[in-house]
Design brief:
Radius of gyration: 16 Å
Strand content: under 5%
Number of domains: 1
CATH architecture: Up-down Bundle
Shape: elongated
Oligomer: single chain
């Protein structure tokens, strides 16, 4: 059974919003070289969640689910990497 055009539009909108939601955080951290306001625990959970959603999408062969979550995984992973790179004082971590 094919999804209705409304369902496809809602799913596309949800995927695009989810994928782009990390961009402002990445840009802010990179420009300021400061990730002290980013919660490490939150981003560890977020990355783990997107990894699970990606695996789920692959397992059920829902490629739009898998693809959008791969992008979200990469972007949330970038925030996590920047959190580790820039210490509390804004200097690169050792």
């Amino acid at each position: 059974m094919a999804a209705s055009p409304v369902a496809v539009a809602v799913g596309t909108c949800a995927a695009l919003l989810s994928m782009t939601s990390f961009a402002p955080q990445i840009v802010k951290i990179w420009r300021e070289r400061d990730a002290s306001s980013v919660s490490l625990r939150t981003y560890l959970a977020t990355v783990a969640g997107f990894a699970c959603w990606t695996a789920y999408g692959v397992m059920i062969q829902a490629w739009p689910v898998a693809a959008s979550n791969i992008v979200c995984l990469a972007m949330s992973g970038a925030v996590l990497a920047l959190k580790w790179r820039f210490g509390r004082d804004g200097a690169p971590s050792a």
